[in-house]
Design brief:
alpha/beta; 5-stranded mixed sheet; 5 strands; 11% strand
Length: 307
C-alpha cells in the first residue's frame, strides 16, 4: 500500500487494491503518523530551508531539507518565524544544532534570523538561484518600464526579448547573443541592464574571497551609476546581505537539491489535483520524499494483511 501510494494517487491505489478510497486513505495516514511518531532526525549537517505554496490565497509550507541526503526532514504550516522556530526549538537538541555545519536559504529575514540564532556553528550561504532570480526580476522590471514607454516601432525590436534576457551565457546561441547585442541601438537601458546581469554571473566563479569582494564592490558601484532604479534596489539588498553571499566562495552551498525536491512536491500536489487537508499533504510528502523509509518500517506480513 505504501509503495503504491508513493507512485500514484490514493484513488488509483484503492482501485488497484480493490478497497474503498476512504478506507485506504485512513489506513495510509494512520500508518504514516504511527511510524513517524517519535522519529529522530539524525546526521544533519547541511540544511536547506524554503517555502512551498500548497493552496491558493498565499498559503505556504516551510520545508527543511537535508542537502547531503536529498530528503525532506521537516514540514511546517506557514512561513512565519514561529513556524521555523518549531523546527529548531522542538525537533532538534542543542547538540544537533551544534552539528549543523552549513545552511542555505533565500533572502528571507525570517529564515536568516532563525539560522543565525539557532545554529552557532553553521556557515549561512544565501542561495545562488534565489539571488539570480531577484536580479532577473530587476532586469525584467527595466524591460517592462521601457516597453510601457515605447512606441509601436520600438516595441517590434523589444518583442520576444524577455526570455533571452534571462538566459545564462552558457546556454545562449550565437543568434541569441546577436539579438541581445542589437539592443545597444534599439534600447540602451535594457541593454545596460542585461550587460550588468551577465557580468554579475562572474561572481560565482571566484575562488578567492578577497577577489570576490573586490568584484562585488566594483559591480555595485557601476550598477548604482547606471541610474536603473530596479537594479539600484537590488544593489541595496545585495549590500545588506553581502557577508552572507560571500560565504559561497568557501562553502559553495546551494538549494539546488531543495529546488529539485520542490518540483517533486508540486508534482505530488498536482497529481492529486490538490489536497483539502494540509496534514494529508504533508503525510504524502513524508512518504515520498522524507528521511524515513516508511514502507521499510512495516513488516512484510503486515503489509500483506493490509492488502
Amino acid at each position: 500500500m505504501l509503495r503504491l501510494s508513493q507512485q500514484m494517487t490514493q484513488k488509483q491505489t484503492a482501485q488497484l487494491l480493490d478497497v474503498p478510497t476512504s478506507t485506504l486513505s485512513g489506513r495510509l495516514h494512520r500508518a504514516i503518523e504511527r511510524y513517524r511518531k517519535g522519529h529522530e532526525i539524525k546526521d544533519l549537517h547541511y540544511i536547506g530551508i524554503d517555502e512551498v505554496s500548497y493552496c491558493k490565497g498565499h498559503k505556504y509550507l516551510t520545508v527543511v531539507y537535508d542537502l547531503e541526503r536529498s530528503v525532506v526532514v521537516w514540514i511546517g504550516t506557514g512561513k512565519a518565524r514561529k513556524t521555523i522556530n518549531q523546527f529548531f526549538g522542538e525537533m532538534l537538541e542543542e547538540w544537533q544544532l551544534d552539528e549543523i555545519k552549513g545552511a542555505c536559504c533565500d533572502m528571507s529575514d525570517t529564515f536568516i534570523g532563525a539560522i543565525e540564532d539557532y545554529c552557532p556553528n553553521a556557515v549561512l550561504v544565501l542561495d545562488r538561484f534565489h539571488i539570480m532570480k531577484s536580479l532577473n526580476e530587476a532586469v525584467d522590471e527595466v524591460r517592462k518600464e521601457q516597453w510601457r514607454s515605447a512606441d509601436k516601432e520600438e516595441r517590434k525590436a523589444l518583442k520576444g526579448m524577455r526570455w533571452l534576457l534571462f538566459k545564462h551565457g552558457g546556454n545562449r546561441s550565437k543568434r541569441d547573443t546577436r539579438l541581445l547585442n542589437e539592443l545597444q541601438k534599439a534600447n540602451r537601458r535594457i541593454y545596460r541592464a542585461w550587460v550588468l546581469k551577465d557580468e554579475f554571473n562572474q561572481f560565482w566563479e571566484y575562488t578567492y574571497e578577497q577577489s570576490a569582494q573586490t568584484f562585488l564592490k566594483n559591480w555595485t558601484r557601476t550598477t548604482l551609476l547606471s541610474r536603473l532604479e530596479p537594479l539600484r534596489k537590488f544593489v541595496a539588498t545585495l549590500r545588506r546581505n553581502q557577508h552572507r553571499i560571500i560565504t559561497f566562495i568557501k562553502c559553495p552551498l546551494t538549494n539546488a537539491v531543495a529546488e529539485g525536491l520542490n518540483r517533486m512536491i508540486r508534482q505530488i500536489r498536482n497529481r492529486a489535483s490538490g489536497y483539502r487537508n494540509v496534514d494529508c499533504f504533508k503525510d504524502i510528502i513524508y512518504l515520498t520524499l522524507g528521511d524515513l523509509d516508511l514502507p521499510g518500517e512495516i513488516p512484510n506480513e503486515q503489509q500483506l494483511a493490509w492488502m
